[in-house]
Specification:
Blueprint lengths: L10 H4 L6 H5 L9 H19 L3 H14 L4 H13 L3 H15 L5 H13 L3 H14 L4 H13 L3 H14 L4 H21 L3 H18 L1 H13 L3 H14 L4 H13 L3 H14 L4 H13 L3 H15 L8 H13 L3 H12 L4 H27 L3
Length: about 400
Amino acid sequence: MRQWRMQPVPRRWGALLLAGLILAAAATAAFACPEPQQKEADHAFAMAAQFVKAKNWSQAIPALESALSICPDHVKSLKYLGRAYYATGQYEKARKAQEKLIEAAGGNAEASDYMDLGKTYAKLKMYKLARQAYVRAQTLEPDDCAILFNLGLMNYAVKDYRHAVETLEHCLEACPDLQKKVYKPLSKAALKASEKEKRLGNVELAQEYQKKYKQYAANAGGNTGYQLIVKAMKKKDYAEAARLCRDFVARYPKHASAWLSLARSLEQLKDYAGAADAYAHYRELRPEDHRAAGYEVEMLARAGKCEEAIARAQAAEKEFLPKGKTYLAEIYYGWGKALECAKRYADAKAMFRKVLACGNDTLSRYARAEMDRQDQLLEIERRKRLNAGG
């Protein structure tokens, strides 16, 4: 992975930062209260502190407002009033309190103050301002994990995908405990960056971001990592889907959907033994899926493992019979294929007839065709016996 280095804030960002709040914060607070008022506000804040400590925000708010009625620029009261408003969903009030805090604190504003403001801007969908707040926070705390992560998200929100990738890569390196959380948005940012650079004609850069996307998506787990598999399946590139699935389940063996996709891909590739094994793994994670039980039986039959398929079908019937006949259609269908595999054509025909009683219209059509097929196979066997003089 490319080494991340701290870079100066780009000039095009600096002109916008916090709509002038940063300039106001560059100097000492201009509206500090007289000392007697400051002390009185300190005392009022001490009364509110017990509610703040307990996170009893509904009671903290009037106490903090009382302190600010004494000294409108009381920094501690503004800090916690902003947090109290945020915690109670009063985001517009939180924004005003936090902007006032940064103005009142001047050059003493902390990274956490800008981070709080960034969170509030994000809640209000003011993503450009949110990013600006996080940029300022990062200049004060360059390697803070929460700041890096949220700055990366805000870069993505304003469609600055290059910086989203860069910031989240920094977060990935600086904050190993957040790796699982970072991979998903990082893979998304890399994909968007690749698409954007491709549109701009930057082919090599687009390819670089595409490589990053594959790398990070493969590590993301969950839905994002699985998107590579979904994409291959939609393209009907089953060989690629199977390869991706194998890599994925090696990392995430309890990801049921990946096992199911592997089974379906291998079925399309006519690797029926492999498909049966993948269905078996899937069934361990989703034992209630009666359809998969039938598919596993059918794959074993197609792989020529006739007796194993019959045994698996018998076990599945016992498992799902108490739930009713609608749970048995796929199992009976797979069982019929297993009996055909064993050259027990009359028994297979009888099993396909049982499919008709399960109320599955789609499988019933296939079962009728299979019943005709068993008649044909029985006729072929009869002729063979006649030709053999039997």
